[in-house]
Amino acid sequence: MNVLLVNPHIYDFAAYGFWSSPLGLLYLGGILRKNGMNLRLIDCMVTLDVKRKPDGRAPFLKKNDPRPLPAPLAGIRKRLKRYGMSDARLREALLSADPPDLVLITSIMTYWYPGTREAASLIREAFPAAKIVVGGIYPSLCADHAFANLRDAHLVLNHTQVDRLYAYIEESLSFPLSFKPSPYDLDTLPYPAFDLYESIPFVPLLTSYGCSFACAYCATPYMHPAIVRRNPAHVVSEIRHWQALGVKNFAIYDDNFLHRAEIYAKPMLTQIASLADPMDIYNPNAVNAALITEELAELLKASGFREVRLGLETVNPELQHATGAKVNSRVFERAVAALFKAGFPPGSIAAYIMAGLPLQPWEDVQRAIDYLADLGVRTHIAEYTPIPHTPLFDRYHHLARYPITDDPLYQNNALFPFAWEGFTEEDLERLKRSARDKNALLVDK
């Protein structure tokens, strides 16, 4: 049984690689390989001719998309681009091996669905006998839209339906599966199939699903209502596995990494700190500042965190409470002090602040930028993405300047869906410049 895993192109107005990877797709690949299937991967977003940073990050290749934008976007100054490998390289990759029996296509951001739809159509044409299955965040959050638009797929799944995938393989392909783990039993999962890449510049580490908070802008409570943890020793064993293959950079995306730290994060970080080979760890998703103690700060430093990204969202107390009540300024300052005391240098502590929330005034963001600069903390402006099945989406979708409930394309934060007279696109650009200037001063120190 030949299986092709596909991470498709994306269409966006702005995109960068950071430490992103199709982790769910690679976990499924690991499961199918344990059932005796032959795997091949086409990751359209990975190119070999771009220069990576030492931490593993790299830009995506891009070109302008010549097609006209939908009518609601007529007149906007931004240009839509297609990110990923060239058409010639994609065609070469498709034809370089035996035709697949099964194709799994992932779909990540809801507004990236045009690339997923395009990939399904191209593969249906290239391999008419193959069974095509699409899953990921897009069909999980926008199920009706996905079912209507992914007509070239034989099966469209949300994040809870791995059992349907197992049954489909057994019934449609007459291929019995002896290994059918639950994706929520994290310690039984094989390692994700990163070995399918020609090189592995970084590996994301999955240590948990779910979150103990219910932030108004976040879909984690909808996607993963229960918290599921992985045994810390199992995570450390995976790190050793990748280190043996030469991997030095690791990313932790978990929403809940420091929750119940005595049981999970502390033993994990202690074991990581004792490893013979040094490693560099990054947390693209913010950790909760309210959970950082002096002991945890020291463990983060000792285990190899090269920077720590915190969630602040805003310095407005009312908005802090409305968006999730995870942190306030007092506990945030205590966390920053603990991290500096642990030895994190200037410029290595950063915080996310949100911009473009419904009815948010631009002055709120500027105050947060100034506040962080005074603390010696870098600012990352997180432009608000309206995500279906979240309280903010449900309450304010009617205020968006685009039809965000009709088409996920308009949920793209690059479109600034909730611009209003109190917070314009010009305000946003001015705030970005302010943050860049203040960040540069911190790094220079």
Unreliable stretches covering 5 or more consecutive residues: none
Overall form: globular
In terms of quaternary structure, the protein is single chain
Structural class: alpha/beta
In short:
The chain has 445 residues and is α/β, with parallel strands linked by helices. The protein is 34% helix and 15% strand.
Q: What does the secondary structure layout of this molecule look like, with pairings?
A:
Elements lengths: L1 E6 L2 E3 L10 H12 L3 E6 L18 E3 L16 E3 L3 H8 L7 E6 L5 H14 L4 E6 H5 L1 H7 L5 E2 L5 H11 L30 E3 L2 E2 L10 H4 L4 E2 L2 H13 L4 E4 L12 H9 L6 E3 L11 H10 L4 E6 L3 H7 L5 H13 L7 E7 L6 H14 L2 E6 L7 H6 L28 H20 L1
Parallel strand pairs: 1-3, 1-6, 6-7, 7-8, 9-12, 12-13, 14-15, 15-16
Antiparallel strand pairs: 2-5, 4-5, 10-11
Describe this structure in words.
The longest helix is centred in the C-terminal third of the chain and has 20 residues, at 425-444. With 445 residues, the chain is of the alpha/beta class. The protein has 15 helices and 16 strands. The strands form 5 sheets. Strands 3-1-6-7-8 form a 5-stranded parallel sheet, sandwiched between helices. It has a 3-stranded antiparallel sheet with strand order 2-5-4. A 3-stranded parallel sheet has the order 9-12-13, with helices on one face. The protein has helices spanning 23-34, 87-94, 113-126, 137-141, 143-149, 162-172, 220-223, 232-244, 265-273, 294-303, 317-323, 329-341, 362-375, 391-396, 425-444; strands at 2-7, 10-12, 38-43, 62-64, 81-83, 102-107, 131-136, 155-156, 203-205, 208-209, 228-229, 249-252, 280-282, 308-313, 349-355, 378-383.
